[in-house]
Amino acid sequence: MRVTVLGAGTMGHGIAQIAAQAGNAVTIRDIDNAILEDGLDAIESNLQGGVDRGKVSQEEKATTLDRIGTTTDLEEAVDGADLVIEAVPEDLGIKHDTFEEVKAAAPEEAVLASNTSSLSVTEIASVLDRPGRAIGLHFFNPVHIMGLVEIVVAEQTDEATVAFAEGFVEEIGKEPVTVRDSAGFASSRLGVALGVEAVRMLETGVAGPRAIDRAMELGYNHPMGPIELTDVVGLDVRLDILEYLQEELGERFRPPQLLRQKVRAGKLGRKSGEGFYVWDEGEVVGVSGDLEGGR
């Protein structure tokens, strides 16, 4: 199968890696060669980590990298593709523009998928002449480790596309969970609901970030607490999702003022070096200064 991934960022290069590891020919397209190079470097690093842990052979690493090509040209990227997965920024306008470009260049029989984590796949697909071939494939970060792919069925998606998507997810070694298109789907809606309540607890002084996170890690066996996960996802990303869910589903998803203040201050989590925690080289090294009084 020929798979095209649009976007070489965190999600895009992760999707490309696991598709190539499963034996597919993969093309990654981005608008900047530097971003493509960074994406390839990240894939090689992930694979080398697998080699070091004895999970990936040197031969598998080499053949996986050989299956991945890159380009900045959209027409070249989608030429002959069986599946096109967009992993562009979580902005409806950008996704609409991407699907508009893809529909003019990709083969008519190609399945077009969005990696959106919360936006309406039905609305994203509305720009297509044949929206029945559109579907959501919501991967989770880090893609090469997380086992779930949420398949989001738009109002227009036809049964053949659903079957194709479920088969692809199983082929790449992931577990498909199929849901109907609704704001936040299942995973983001539930995950954000837990995360926003945790931030409200911080805001009202119920407990500090470490206490909240440990409560969920030890009491509910979560691999990562909701405050740390918010830092990993990105506070700006969480804010955007909450604003969208508030508009679609009501006041229970209203973003806490503390979250807005953090984003305005540029404290976006792990990627900026500080959010609710302080980060160094991808690891938590302390609690943000304005929360140090919390346990």
3D structure, described in words:
This protein is of the alpha/beta class. It has two domains: 2-180, 3-Layer(aba) Sandwich (Rossmann fold); 187-286, N-(1-d-carboxylethyl)-l-norvaline Dehydrogenase, domain 2. Helix content is 46%, strand content 17%. It contains twelve helices and ten strands. The strands form two sheets. Strands 3-2-1-4-5-6-7-8 form an eight-stranded mixed beta sheet, sandwiched between helices. Helix 1 crosses helix 2 (33-52) and helix 8 packs across helix 10 (226-233). The protein is globular and about 55 Å long. The termini are far apart. The model has no long low-confidence stretch (mean pLDDT 94).
Cross-sheet strand order for the largest sheet: 3-2-1-4-5-6-7-8
Quickly count the helices: 12
**CA distance, first residue to last residue:** 52 Å
The domain tally reads: 2
- The secondary-structure class comes to alpha/beta
Shape by Cα distribution: globular
Radius of gyration (CA) equals 20 Å
Question: What is the helix content?
Answer: 40-55%
CATH architecture of the largest domain: 3-Layer(aba) Sandwich
Determine the oligomeric state from the structure: single chain
Strands, total number: 10
Question: What fraction of the residues are assigned to beta strands by DSSP?
Answer: 15-25%
CATH topology of the largest domain: Rossmann fold
Largest sheet: 8 strands, mixed
Q: In summary, what is this structure?
A:
The protein is an alpha/beta fold. It has helices at about 10-20, 35-50, 60-65, 75-80, 90-105, 120-125, 160-170, 185-205, 210-220, 225-235, 235-250, 255-265; strands spanning about 1-5, 25-30, 70, 85, 110-115, 135-140, 150-155, 175-180, 275-280, 285. The protein has an eight-stranded mixed β-sheet, sandwiched between helices. It has a two-stranded antiparallel ribbon with strand order 9-10.
